[in-house]
Write a structure and sequence with these properties.
The chain has 10 helices and 8 strands. With 252 residues, the protein is α/β, with parallel strands linked by helices. It starts with 8 loop residues before the first strand and ends with a helix. Pfam families: AAA, AAA_lid_3.
């Protein structure tokens, strides 16, 4: 007889700045599981044999606290292709750590433990082939759509916002800005909104730095309204960080 089990391992390959870590935390919260956020600095050690022990302890903890989710962030920094590089001189400790991680993931596939492994990578084509075989599901988290970009801009720059007792008003054409930010990731849009919100503040600083005279008294200082033109000017000087790689992610 042949039995098929539910896939508990998946890879999320995403352009930079699209919120892969936030998405992983949301998955763990919705599934009501214990969340382990793992990066290269968590399991890589300079001491001989420690990296393999850390990997083994991680999976033992995940089994003990099951149901649990292990999130491997920036997977390419831990599981790059073995034997590839200048002089093919990969360190022995790195190879042992990768082998232990593969063995532990094989152990999950053969057991009934409710441990879900979710990995994220900005460079999925650099991952080791043995790891790709174990990552049964591959999910592309693409750049935000026009509607999503409009919602993001409206979230960061609503018509009226009050932060720290300072009221900021905006008059924006969200539909136009959604079209103008094509190819921008979530972090790019946040940066654009922050820069646009700082423009009225910079104008106040410029007014205060100018020398005051009787003919040129101190003006009435107040925050100006952020307009669509302000954001368009910021967009002209802020280029998208992942637009050129979008097609490569889709093809992979």
């Amino acid at each position: 007889s042949v039995s098929l089990s539910v896939s508990l391992v998946s890879l999320s390959h995403v352009p930079p700045g699209t919120g892969k870590t936030l998405l992983a935390k949301a998955v763990a919260t919705e599934c009501n599981t214990t969340f382990f956020n793992i990066s290269a600095s968590t399991i890589v050690s300079k001491w001989r044999g420690d990296s393999e022990k850390l990997v083994r302890v991680l999976f033992e903890l995940a089994r003990f606290h099951a149901p649990s989710t292990i999130f491997l962030d920036e997977l390419e920094s831990v599981m790059s292709q073995r034997g590839i590089g200048p002089g093919r001189g990969e360190h022995e400790g790195s190879r042992r750590m990768k082998t232990e991680l593969l063995v532990q993931m094989d152990g999950l596939a053969r057991s009934d433990d409710l441990v879900f492994v979710l990995a994220a990578s900005n460079l999925p084509w650099e991952l080791d082939h043995a790891m790709l075989r174990r990552l049964e599901k591959r999910i592309l988290v693409d750049l935000p759509t026009t509607e999503a970009r409009q919602v993001m801009i409206q979230h960061w720059l609503p018509p009226v916002s009050n932060s720290g007792g300072v009221e900021l008003r905006t008059q924006l054409d969200y539909s136009l800005l959604g079209d103008k930010t094509e190819g921008y990731s979530g972090s790019d849009i946040k940066l654009v909104c922050k820069e646009a919100a700082m423009r009225p503040v910079r104008k106040i600083f410029d007014a205060l730095e100018n020398p005051q005279t009787e003919k040129n008294p101190l003006p009435n200082i107040k925050l100006e309204t952020v307009t669509t033109e302000d954001i368009l000017e910021v967009i002209a000087h802020t280029k998208p960080s992942a637009k050129k790689l979008s097609q490569k992610y889709t093809a992979w």
